[in-house]
Design brief:
This protein is an alpha+beta fold. Helices cover 68% and strands 10% of the residues. Helix 9 crosses helix 20 and helix 10 packs antiparallel against helix 18. 24% of the residues are buried. The mean pLDDT is 77.
Amino acid sequence: MRLHRLDVTAFGPFGGTQSVDFDELSAAGLFLLHGPTGAGKTSVLDAVCYALYGSVPGARQSGQGMTLRSDHAVAARTEVRLELTVAGRRLEVTRQPPWERPKLRGRGTTVDKAQTWLREYDASAGTWKDLSRSHQEIGEEITQLLGMSREQFCQVVLLPQGDFARFLRADAEARGKLLGRLFDTRRFAEVEKRLAERRRATEARVREGDAALLADAHRMQQAAGDAMELPELAPGEPGLAEAVLGAAAVARTTARELLAVAECRLTATEFAQAAAERDLADTRELDRLQRRFTQARERADRLAERAGAHHAAQQRMERARKAEAVAPALELRDAADAEHRRAAASEAHARAALPQALADAGATGLAAAARRAAEELGGLESARRAEQRLAELVGERARLDRQERADEDVLHEAESWLADWETTRSQSQAGVDSAQEAATHAEQLAVQRDPAQRRLNAARQRDRLTGDTAESQRHVLAAAERAVEARAHWLDLKEQRLNGIAAELAAGLIDGAPCAVCGATEHPAPARRNAGHVDREAEERALVAYQDADERRAQAERRLGTVREALAAATAEAGDAPTARLAEEAEELERRYARARASASGLHAAQEELRRAEREREQRIAAQQQAAVRAASRVGNRERLESERTALEEELTRARGTADSVAARAAQLERRAALLTEAADTARVAEDTAQRLKDADARLADAAFRAGFDTPRDAAAALLDDAAHRELQRRLDAWDAEEAAVRAVLTEADTAAAAQRPPAGLGAAEDTAAAAGRRLREASSVRDAAARRCAELDRLSAHATTSVRRLAPLREEHGRVARLASLASGTSADNERRMRLESYVLAARLEQVAAAATARLERMSSGRYTLVHSDDRTGRGRSGLGLHVVDAWTGRERDTATLSGGETFFASLALALGLADVVTDEAGGVRLDTLFIDEGFGSLDDQTLDEVLDVLDSLRERDRSVGIVSHVADLRRRIHAQLEVVKGRTGSVLRQRGAG
């Protein structure tokens, strides 16, 4: 990393804008930053740190950057810009902290957010290229390129001697904190933390498993009662699992013994309960038989009481069976009587509609009268046809009258329409002529539309190309200027290359090979390239840039010529007429054309209207002629219809008689014939049914006599309907079934024998059986509880055994992790020096720092002092970060706190430089070409100061530049390149002086 330039504005003590050219200061390798106390020397270093990391070192960073603004600043915004080269890339970082400024509108203030820019210089293009404006992205990019955090940068690049003096005298703990920040050993501390967390986690899991195991032991104790004693151990203590499993085994054995005793007791109670149940069953059977016999005797007594009623029911059933033989004759007589009654009613109804003269006539007389009426009705058929024809004649006469009136209307309408024919024809012809004229005018306007539209389009293109021509001319001028500039740049580079061609040729010289210019094989003083040397590639790039610019100029000129040609063509087409006037003329032409088209569109309709009127005239003339023909034919038709009507009316008068019409006379005859026929039929049916009723009465009397009844009425009374018959039969069957059941019970041997025995003691037997059942249930409950206890103990023991097996790997892991955590934290007995893992790593780094510092300390102390690392313990503390100085004059090793003030300064300076080398290597080998050393030189004598400056001057051998921040006046005489900070009432300013 090399610093090139620093610009600060309104930052710290600097009220205005101040600049530092580090390239000029670094040319001598060693430069001095000096000024009075409070002038702002440290602020220069703060600005470098702020530009890179967005914050300043230590306690000076506060208030989110608001305190970085200079109190001497007036209106300018605080800004820090740093230009540097890191990892082969030239970067420019610009940062602006938050700024509280007056509001643009109104009163009060507002805070502008912090701003950050990162740019990179593109050497090929010779310009700066923007990379990012994100705080986070820029911070990550800078940290990645430098390979150091802000704390490391402040310790390695900005060497604070006070901090290293304290580091030199500090104890192991304070020294470890500083080294931990520089070398970022947080990962090793994280390993210690992770191991401790894993130890706590595995210990918690082991305790959790032991707690679950103890919970199983408590449940086993609850299941076993007082037969199990729990071990007096806490979760996590050794031997807990073995003690729990041993107690569980004892509890299982005791539970199995209790189960065996309970099973023996249950077997004995089962036998006793079975005997009691058998006695109870025998007693219940005897009680049932005795109650059965008693109930049978009671039923027999009730049957004897109902014997009379049973005998009467039997007799009633017998008379009903005899009456069933007479039932068919009774049904036949009832059917014949009903039929006769219906026939007589029909006869009476039919005779009531007959004339009085025929009311008492027999069936034969009624049939003869019906035949006579039918014969008279047949004679009226011819009159019916005549009456129908007369109605048709009346309809034809009415039709002729309607035709006559319609023809008169047609003739009147035709005469009226034909009277206006000439006017109608003239109007239609005028519409046709007008539409034809409009069509002709529209065709003429259509021919004018295209030229007018082309002129309008050309005028618009003319206007657009006029603007394009001016724009193309500007492009041509700009392209020509760029081409001239590119050619001048190319010629300048070519001239510079020719001036430095000797250095370019010298770069290809090889010892022993002849020179391409002079031919010599020895090259004692080859030319060297200066800082601004131009090589072939730069010249060729400039030439390509000039050729590209010239080609773009030629393209711009070609485009200008094309635009001018198009403008000339458009002007020739449109002329000088304004575009607005051409647009108005084209719009007016379009309107006239649209009106003509609209008028011409009615030509076809007008022609159709004229043709329709001519066809209508022809149709009306034809209708007049046809109406005249129909009027002549109607005269003959009327005469024929009149004569035929007169003959038919005479015939109908004779046929109607007293009726209003032939149809009415026919209806009278039809009704009379129907009534006579119906009356004759009903009379014959009534005579037949009366004879069948007489025959049925005779057959019924004979059947009743043969069945044993005195009269048919007695037989009818003896009959039973289906419901009464079923009920009587049910009662008889129930009597028989009850009598059979009682007889069967009374004849049973077991029932009779039981009746002879004393009454059964059912209550005592049930009490005995219930007591035996209770004893059995109690024994069964005891045995079930013992079985459940055994099963529960077996289940819990199996679960505990499984838990112990599952916890075994975890216990082993916990032991392994606990040993590693104790070893890493320095508390293990195996860690003899009680050194933590992070301290061990830092001890290795401190050993490297001591070795690197010794190389410079020997030169500064004229070979007297060397720094060595010590891992001895101090008191009861831990070892690993001790630092001693070896005095070559005495050959003894002693503590760094015994060094004098000057010795402490150059020892801490050597330590700082050594630490810078180690941290640089640790950060990935990022080269640190610029270093700053803050104060401490005033404590050195002249000889030691010379030796220290020689050491610092030797850093130039590694192409480094070192800035010394000091008040020592002698340094201003020894170091010529200086940056002075001058303090004033309006703020500090920077004055820079080069090595010359």
